[in-house]
Amino acid sequence: MGISVDGLTSRSWLIRPHVSWADWTWTEEAERLHRLSQVRLWRDGLPVERVAAELAEALGGAQVIADNLIDAYWLETLYEAAAQPCPVEIQCIGEILRESGLKSDVIFAAQTRIDALGFGRHRAGEDARWLAALLMELEKQMQARDRSLLRATRPTELLAYANT
Question: What pLDDT sits at residue 151?
Fold first, then answer.
């Protein structure tokens, strides 16, 4: 799980599987994609209670944006396992982009510029950095139109979130 405010830095947590997730399957494909083995998750992962508490503190009421609808489900699953209330609601970037009125060629051009920066992918911290950088690039496009893509009034109120 990872977050980024500025696209330059990120914070991420490796989560030890919770006992309530015992029937979940971690496939070889997932292991290759994320470069994480189940052995490493169990050995190096942090307890869900600790991750949930640290994440809640880091989020601090910020606007949280994810690139996938499943991220909201995963965040709720984390907090349910930790027996803590989920501190934020996640917005999906797709919803924000639909409401923005930006044309698809503008969005794809911004994505191409951000992809060229060489972010690693399929690791939570890097995915969060990529998403934050994309949001900032798209926000520039909106500000050129005297509008805003984001409801956050200060950059520190925006957090890009990734769960990979």
Answer: 67
